[in-house]
Amino acid sequence: MVVARGKLKPLHDNIVVVDMNFDERKTKSGLVLLSDDGKAEGVRHRWGRVWAVGPEQEDVKVGEWILLEHGRWSRGFKYEDPTTGEVITIRRGDPKAILAVSDHEPNEDDMGKFNTVTHPTFDFTN
Questions:
Q1: 71 in the Ramachandran plot: left (φ > 0), alpha (ψ -120 to 50) or beta?
Q2: Are 105 and 49 in contact, with CB atoms under 8 Å apart?
Q3: Count of structural domains within the chain
Q4: Position 117 confidence tier, pLDDT thresholds 50, 70, 90
Q5: What CATH number is attached to the domain comprising 83?
Q6: pLDDT digits (tens, 9 = 90+) for 53-72
Q7: Nearest-5° angle of CA 108, CA 73, CA 81?
Q8: pLDDT digits (tens, 9 = 90+) for 29-61
Q9: Secondary structure class of 120 (helix, strand, coil)
């Protein structure tokens, strides 16, 4: 396995993300959702944790989680984090493809949690 080493500094408003999940997932109720990477059903937006940002990036900061439009990230490559020595997979995320930002890692409990109607509703049956 080839591992990149050295200093990595994003330019302009670029974003480097880690922790994107392409593996199987397990729901809170115990259902196992097999990996859908490379399949038609795998065409979906994905969350990633912001690992580094360029000096002109004003929308997100390191440590936040961002939801990126499907396919709007680069292929990952292995990189040795100089601060921890850990080998991680990093990707460039497209700053124009950010759909949402979260301070914490989104999980199954967060999905659909905020989809209740909070505005007045109207009954058109009369």
A1: left
A2: yes
A3: 1
A4: very low
A5: 2.30.33
A6: 999 999 999 999 999 998 89
A7: 85
A8: 777 666 555 555 555 788 999 999 999 999 999
A9: coil
Q: Would you mind telling me the total number of residues written for the chain in this entry?
A: 126
Q: What is the pTM of this model?
A: 0.71
**65-68 and 25-26 strand pairing:** unpaired
Which residues constitute the domain of residue 23? 15-102
- Can you give the pLDDT at residue 70? 85
In single-letter form, the type of residue at position 109 comes to D
Parallel, antiparallel or unpaired: strands 65-68 and 46-53: antiparallel
Residue 51 domain-assigned? yes
For range 106-126, the mean pLDDT? 53
DSSP state of 29: T
| Helix, strand, coil % over all residues of the chain, rounded to 5 | 5, 30, 65
- Is the sign of the CA dihedral 80, 83, 88, 89 positive or negative? negative
